[in-house]
Amino acid sequence: MAFEYIEITDPLFVQNLGKCEEDDYLMVRAKQYSHVPIKIPNWVPQAHCFSVDFKNHEKDLLEAEVYPDDVWVISYPKSGTTWVQEMVWCICNDLNFEAARANSLQSRFPFLEASSFAPVSFNTYEYARNTPRPRFIKTHLPVSMLPKRYWEVKPKTIHIRRNPKSVAVSYFFHSERFFYKCSMDTFLRSFVREHQFFSPYHAHVIEYHELQGCDNILHLTYEEMKRYLPAVVRKVCEFFGKSYSKPELELLYQHLSFKSIRDNPTLNREKPNDPIKTTPFIRKGETDGWKHELTPEQIHMLDEWTKERVPNPEHRKLFE
């Protein structure tokens, strides 16, 4: 087997099992990782949180094809992924806003491993495999779990990261929208124990920034996109060898504005008569909303979590 499967015995997890209506989680550790070009001395990947569905798609993941003309967007969940996907797709498709508005982001940008952690109605690996090239692929996988072909081909990739407190709040509301039935405080205590899909969070971010010889990856942050989007757009255009006029770029900025993203049905996953109305998929789009939504005790807990998980001062800069 290419992966080790570890039962979660943490008392808080066991106590809340079923109560919060989460899936049957387990921790999954990659056993084959010598091909990952990482600079961390004596690196051994950590186990990451998935559901038992992961076991049913181990072969799909290991044998996933990767092509030189692929474009990948990689992130830990709730780090600004949807925003970056739309920006990348438009830049790489000659600012074809008409086509972007006519087709859902999920169809234009398949979520590679969704079948590995969620009960979807089709095999997402197969869907990605059959998507016409050039393909646009979304993934939240850590470096240790990317298909081996990824490292052989090294397709153009954007990696996006976000402040951990913003991620924590956004992840709670996202989970509450789809299935989660417990309080934010319960979610946060589970989150810092790394018992939410794709955790551990810090390891994901650090490992992508410790890769070597990977000039195929462009690193962005949610915060820099919020501060001054045009600078990020210029950087991404240069990365993909694209050039647009000032009027064309102004249209792109409008298309990528928070209001436009929030109101765009191809992005926000809102459907007529949708019974899930508790929390919108695209919620506030703020960089410091956590200051108003977390208690001082919760902020302290998340800050201490980062200090504990990231002892290296240089790495800690990634989470400021």
Automatic annotation (TrEMBL):
Keywords: Transferase. One of its GO terms (cellular component) is cytoplasm. GO terms for biological process: sulfation. The keyword Transferase applies. It comes from the Eukaryota. Residues 68-309 form the Sulfotransferase domain. GO terms for molecular function: sulfotransferase activity. SUPFAM superfamilies: P-loop containing nucleoside triphosphate hydrolases. Gene3D superfamilies: P-loop containing nucleotide triphosphate hydrolases (3.40.50.300). Belongs to the sulfotransferase 1 family. This is AGAP009553-PA. It comes from Anopheles gambiae (African malaria mosquito).
